[in-house]
Amino acid sequence: MEFLLEIMTEEMPYAHVKLAHDQLINLFRQELTEARIKIKELRTSGTCRRLVVVADIEEKQSDREDIILGPPKKVAFTEDNKFTNAAFGFARAHNISVEDLEIISTPKGDYLGFKKKEEGQPAKKILPEVIPRVLSSLSFPKMMRWNEGMGRFSRPVKNLMALLDGEPLQFAYLDWPVRPFTFGHRFHSPLQLTVKSWKEYIDALRKNKVIVEPEERRRIILEGAKKLLEPYGAQLYPDDELLERLVNDVEHPFVILGSFPEKYLALPIEIISTVLREGQKLFSVTRQGKQLPLFVGVADQIADPKFLIRQGYERVLKARLEDALFFWEQDLKVPLKERVDQLARIVFQEKLGTYLEKTERLKKLVVFLGQQLGEKEILKTSLQAAELCKTDLLTEMVREFPSLQGKVGGLYCRVQNYPPSVAKAIYEHYQPQSLDEPSPSSLEGAILALADKIDSLVGAIGLGAEISGSGDPLGLRRYAHGICKIILDHRLRLSLTKLIRKSIHLYGEKLCLNEKETVEACLGFFTQRLRFIYEKNGFRYDLINASLQTGIDDIYLSFLRLKALEELKSSPAFEPFVLMVRRVNNILRGQPVFKFNEQLLKEKAEKELQAAFEIVKENALPLIQQGEFSKAQKIVFKLQSPLNNFFDKVLVMVEDRKLRQNRLALLHNIRDFLFKIADFSQIVLAGEKENQKGKA
Amino acid sequence: MALQDLIMNLQQFWAKQGCYLAQSYDVEVGAGTMTPDTFFRVLGKRPWRVAYVQPSRRPTDGRYGENPHRVQKHFQFQVIIKPSPLDIQDIYLDSLRACGIKLEEHDLRFDEDDWESPTIGAWGVGWQVMLDGLEITQFTYFQQAGGLDLFPIPVEITYGLERLEMFLEGKDSIYDLDWSKDVSYRDLRWLEEKEFSEYNFKAADIERLQTAFLLYQKEAQQLIDRRLLLPAYDCCLKLSHLFNLLDSRGAISVTERVKLIAEIRHLVNQIARLFVSLEGED
Predict the structure, then answer these.
(1) Candidates 2.60.60.20, 1.10.730.10, 3.40.50.300, 3.30.420.240; correct CATH number of A555-693?
(2) Do A13 and B112 touch (CB under 8 A)?
(3) Helix (H, G, I), strand (E, B), or coil: what is residue A15?
(4) Cα separation of B24 and B37, whole Å?
(5) A-chain residues near B110 (CB < 8 A)
(6) Best mutation target, A16, A159, A175, A187, to test chain B (most B CBs within 10 A)
(7) A586-592 average pLDDT score
(8) What is the ipTM of this complex?
(9) Record: contact A309-B107, CB cut-off 8 A
(10) pLDDT higher than 90, residue B250
(11) CATH architecture entry for A351-538
(12) Domain ranges within chain A, ordered by starting residue
């Protein structure tokens, strides 16, 4: 049967609409499954004014048979096989006669009891109970109330319409209006519309100037823009977030093309597109990567025959561009270098001091990073970039458009004729803002970004910032993700611990936690974030553990380790090897560390093992250093046969204490060596998954 | 249609909706929300309907009369209705029609924009209303004021009169607007903008502003202690304006900002709590 629910509201925020769609799917799936109504199809649709659920469901609940157990057989019958009082009592309690009871066998023995059959109720009866439960479970980051009603929602709810195979469902929730009809576009067709099906619903709304399906609105916008821009050989400057917002915000998209005076092209595209986007939700237009004095907007309209809308947008935009051009020209009158001292006037963080202090720390951090990475020739660029990177916080442009911080600094640098590499490093140093954004493309940018992020992260954690909560109010996750991503993208080999220590030292006496606590909190946080990143990239959790357990000091190395495990996990040598390592671990469990003495080796098999181990070590160690884990691992697999042989032929736990301890010491050396590759004890083999998962 | 016609249209429209037409409040405020006709009346359970023009001062927005859009004092048309009517969006749209705007020919959008005022412990959810990309109204369902949950829920509609008039007259500069047939916005306001910008950014004496802040702070507290809540609230408005002036003089550091706002909020919250508890005694 077709189930259709429409929740009409006043205009909901884009983020809330997205949340509502996810929740509606989950809640209906959960509630209907619990109510034993099978779902063949379930999806959502709608606009900012209507949340729509459409589903194909079974017309009734599946039947249910409950087994009701009474007294055990022994208690229910007398010795001459007559019902006891216990049996009569049970029957009476369930309002049936003893003749209807039967013997039911269970693993615990035979019982007197009966099977209670419950026929499934029609969906028509169940849905009126399900819908209010779903409505009361929907939640938003910020909930509101309105009028004198008791309900809370994202925005006021205007109308609820629920149909089952075209028939209106009778239900009630709080004082929200439930009616068997819907409404068209706010201005073009505010009529009551009665429909009998999803198809009729879409068609009726289309006639009344509402395009229900987000996909279709997106297509109208993109195709409309393409058509308008074709004569200019131009394209939209891509902006997916803006597109999604506009798809959400209008019920009937109408694409407009407008223009602005060419003199504003003196502004770079980053600034023009920000002015367009943030003020009025307009797209920039480019041809061969160059900004044109045009914009594309999306109105909630069917036409603009008198060009009133276009002219309106143009007038407002011109005023905003005029402001931006004024800021640009004013800001450029002061060389960034001259702004550095004024950084003392703005606070980075109350306890961590000003941006001038931060700048001093960044200068030292980029030098440190350059040395760690052996990149001495970029030192001068990095230093200059570090010195200037925060100065744009003092400009009018960044005050007006805070999202442009960094970029504005880079752009001003370029115009003021600083070296291009300096401009680029500053431009990129807030990147990446999320795991989906690219890292800085230049090495100088990467180093400055690392310095900036580690300084902010260590500062916050060193002050005791909460790192386990669900939100990310201080952006700590963003910093940690940024650092990991830059290291992985640029394949940087450096010691995270040393970097954290350096950053702590630069803070001097400012932090609340001591050095050890701060380092531990940071490393714990990075381990957690790195696990998140690895999981997001689809690596198996046990392989992730096997890599992370060996440490994350060298993040790139930890990644190579994981990648090698991933490559080798299906090799035939892998599983026997993991089992062998477990055998080694088992025998060493609870044993202290003994000193190994080659002279004490007696049996042939143990001498062979030691010889093989020496060769493997010699060949594999340099590969491990270089991060060639896959190659190293293939060499290490060669220990399999001498180890097998050793366990077959040699008794480790012999009476002779010296011999025993020496054999344990040999195995210990092997285990320590293997740990340089991975913690194989974390690996879960096929068939063990469920048992092991709890332990991981 | 001149600005005063717009005002008269809106007054007439909202009077018909049962609003009492208040006169502008005579203490400096940053927004119409801050006057007693809004602040005290949204608290408590009594229904309330009011509409008024309120000059609103934002010292940092001063541009010496040189920017065609930004001024350190502008005029808001403020409407408060409690409880918020179920069809308030439609009523609001009718008010625009009453001003002569043919909504069918334009792009009108309710664009997510939640509002909060930390100084008076208030927040709400709603939209900025955009007309062909121009923000003409702030539309808010109040949820809290003075740190108290509100119920019934009031709705606040704040028209930016200059913005709306620029739209109606199709003008690019605020100073070119007609206030009446004979008097322009420039005639009335340009000199004021120029002189007050000079005052806000340069001439205001920081030390005396700081002293005044301390004096009003003490005065507010002693008035609260005597349960003279309306005079105490006026002192809070003074404090808010002094804060804004100090800010435009660049005399407030980031740390101080948080501290001063918290101090004002502390006073305002006391007033709101006492007001609600005393109202219950009537």
Answers:
(1) 1.10.730.10
(2) yes
(3) helix
(4) 10
(5) 10-11
(6) A187
(7) 89
(8) 0.93
(9) yes
(10) no
(11) Orthogonal Bundle (1.10)
(12) 2-60+122-207, 65-118, 215-332, 351-538, 555-693
